[in-house]
Amino acid sequence: MVFPSDIRVLISIKKGDITKEDVDVIVNAANPSLLGGGGVDGAIHRAAGPELLAECRTLGGCSHGEARITKGYRLKARYVIHTPGPVYRNGKSGEREVLRNSYYNSMKLAHQNTLQSIAFPAISTGVYGYPKEEACEVAITTVLEYLRDTGYRMQVVFVLFDDENYTLYIDYLKKLRG
Description:
The protein has six helices and six strands; from the N terminus they run αββααββαβαβα. By secondary structure, it is α/β, with parallel strands linked by helices.
């Protein structure tokens, strides 16, 4: 898949803690209740403070692949986009499309709110068990396709917590950049 170089330069990869990102919005790999959990979801809720949970309670949850936006409260990010990715079963139950929708709908929500920078974790690759290599390809490709197809320009950073995801994302982006 070929993407114009001006789009590819909008993407960066880093290893770190997404709760510390100074961007307009960070994406939370949430569970459908939106009421916190483990992994990145729990970390974001802890860092944002109890106000985030209070606002999430008003949203009525969120289906896998959809996205909701809240304020960032005590985070550096002004907003949080919450998206429950798919629980990986066998790869034949629509998981790829749901994961794609999580990234696409997060980008769409950021665009609708005219945000200029967004940070993503590796959605669904923790307790939801999505294979990391495929998840990486879906994540980067979906974001690049959104930027290309809409013409919207924003800085996108993938913030990976573990070495394996970090290496996969770096290698995949290098391959795309040629």
